[in-house]
Records
---
Amino acid sequence: MIAHSQVAVIGGGIGGLATALALAMQGASVCVYEQASAIAEVGAGLQVTPNGARVLNWLGLESTLSVKGLQAEAVVPTDGLSGRAVTRFDLSRQLPAYRFVARSALIDMLATACIKRGVQIVLNHRADDLPEADLVVGADGIRSITRGLLNGAGPARFTGQVAWRATISATSLPEARIWMLPRRHVVTYPLPGGRLNMVAVQERDDWAEEGWHHPDEPAQLREAFSDACGALQTLMMQVEAPRLWGLFQHPVARVWVTDRVALVGDAAHPTLPFLAQGANLALEDAAVLARFLSLHGIAAGLPRYQAARKPRVMRAIAAASANAVNYHLSGPRRTVAHLGLRTLGKVAPDAFIGRMDWLYGFDATS
Ligand SMILES: Cc1cc2nc3c(=O)[nH]c(=O)nc-3n(C[C@H](O)[C@H](O)[C@H](O)COP(=O)(O)OP(=O)(O)OC[C@H]3O[C@@H](n4cnc5c(N)ncnc54)[C@H](O)[C@@H]3O)c2cc1C
């Protein structure tokens, strides 16, 4: 029932391109408006978890993803002071596979598939209002104007955390390592081509501005982690040009849909990056929206989309925020938590992954 409708998508990020492709596959005529002069992605790596991979497979990108992504074998929570692995959670049996990909590769595979499906992509076009179309999809990210048009301007709250991101040349096992230190943590994982992706988070009281692009001195990063174990400090010695940004929490939008508008991805539900779900949830949005519109048409499908998605993304966002607390413990609580994790890993190695079933096992395509 979405077939032959005219759809305008504002934003050519992961959420916008996935939604454009999903709707084009249902027969809609889709145009994506992107403010940038090229479809390209800032940042380096992304973890595509099985719930996101399921959508990419449904979009016909299974073989490209398996070529462009490294299959993850484990998540390894590690004591960032001693360098000792606390436990190891096996990912090797996840289906579809959990993968590490370069953001640019993911964007490229989505854009290429969109073009093959006849999606028109208009660059250098900043939308300041809703375009004329049967359906407008607001996929314009964390500072979405579409969300503002539907909900009014909402305040963002500084979370008291800043993050550096960087990539370095390094070979590594296909594992995501979470280095936990008091009031800080670092996530590292390999990317294709011998690169290692690093995001280092520190609790901090002072920060003014939100944004991804603040160049920082590597010395500041090293100073913040000067008590870290040797292995982590060695990795940090290779960082040349880190970017620093303040982590802000935006509330989930109250209104996601009108009779002809839908928000997807960060525009609807920005999340902190501590569960690696922002892009995966955007992929899920794309599949659920396209399926509901195809089954019920625009007017009846849009409210169903919001009703289906909101509880799930609220749960994922709460889980991401809780991770920050758990990673940053200090003193006796830290000792107890690490002991608990270590014991869990020994006596019930599948329990952790089992606890993630609600997230990784979700199938947005059926
Ligand atoms: C450090 C870090 C690590 C992360 N790691 C992961 C991870 O491992 N796994 C994961 O799933 N998620 C991860 N995320 C989250 C993920 O990157 C985002 O949730 C995801 O990119 C959101 O996609 P989006 O398409 O909704 O928005 P965006 O990627 O922000 O795309 C929005 C697009 O809209 C365009 N745009 C904005 N306004 C306009 C306008 N008015 N007119 C036209 N175009 C406009 C922008 O230029 C942009 O291209 C991470 C985030 C961070 C910060």
---
Amino acid sequence: MDETPDRNVCGLKIIGAVDIGGTKISVGAVTETGAIVKRLECATRPKEGFAAAMERIKNMLREVIGGGFKLEGIGIACPGPLNPFTGIIGDVGTLPGWEGCNLMAGFESEFGVQVAVENDADAAALAEARWRAAKCNERFIYVTVSTGIGGGIVLSGELYRGATGAHPELGHQIIDASGPLCYCRAHGCWESLASGSAIVSWVKEQQPDTAVGTAEEVCILAQQGDPLAQRAVAREGYYLGLGLANLVTVFTPDAIALGGGVMKSGHLFLDRALEVVREVCTQVPAEKTQITLASLGPDTGLAGAAQAWNSRYH
Ligand SMILES: [Zn+2]
């Protein structure tokens, strides 16, 4: 864990931020300006059950908010599907056995503050829109490219929600109907063509005996001049670009920020993606949409959780 800063924190207003992922859970104390002053992490171990994970989170929260902070509220970011108003988790692929469990209930009674739960991509979108370096966020879309592809839309500082609060699934827009079958049951959705898993699947399809196991490894090989990995990276630029082009044509937002693990290698394929956007988006002023890498980096999860609370209750 990070050390608590030496400065006097007595009375400093903080938001307890909880970022739940399939692999790890981060818990932090985040100020109202988005600074993370303390953080802890543990493995999620979803199969040990929801109750056990909640106990671990509560213990970490008690630890991060100790030492004189004033707890304003708690924000929780979690992969969807989930209901952001009741806190009830749906059938989340990376959290088996947690369906129907309530993320909100235990925390409100234990800590006596309001709790905001948000889909993690929406939470990240809110944090990027509020705290990102570049400010042209009136119409803003955040896209995360990692194992899957997700995103959130923020209009005038407010999260865009669909009917009954539904979270728009940007990653499952169809890019090529003859493409691979996705678990969403569509063929050739954006996630099935341009996510980290899609990069690995494609390489394995081309070369079944490959030792490559992650998108990051493919990107490293591409940088070292491996021809198949370079084709995979070129393909990533093309399909990433097509999905972005759809967002630009449909929304023409002021900005799109790209985050997630795969974008750490964005220097290998972002230029190609932007070229595709310029080629395809002829019917809207596409040059008005700034497409950049997200600015919060590894802090996005906790900043998102805190901003989820901030934007709902502050
Ligand atoms: Zn899909």
